[in-house]
User: What shape does this take?
Amino acid sequence: MLTNRANRLDPSLIPAEQIEKVARAFARPGHVLLVDEQGQQTEIPAVLLQHFSRIVRLMSEKKAIVMLPEDEAFTTQAAANHLGMSRQFFVGLLEKGEIPFHRVGTHRRVTFKDLLEYERKRDTVRRESLSRLTDEVAKEGLYFSDYKGDE
Assistant: This one.
């Protein structure tokens, strides 16, 4: 398992004027080229350019970036923290089969990819439920877009 320290891009380690210069280059429309010591140019593919642009923009805002590969293994406590729930509740989800896991000795581990997939599914279910509830309230005539509270 990688440590956060090894995955963390700290903007304080780069002079602010250098980050700003790079941020301006990435903000311009068009392509960005990499130039090696021999002067050979390589165009950064659009997909990578979008990610690099976001990373540089966030770092120019003094925000640190943490990069994790999808197969990064999380402990149950770290995974629960990521999802904003107790470790006990999270372990219950694992035991019900809602999130895949593997064991390292006696300890459960969950990949970052599986956490993201669970989050995506959970958020979809929440949005659909809220949409259904809103529709039911509107059908009953109980939804007032101009409601101003007790008057």
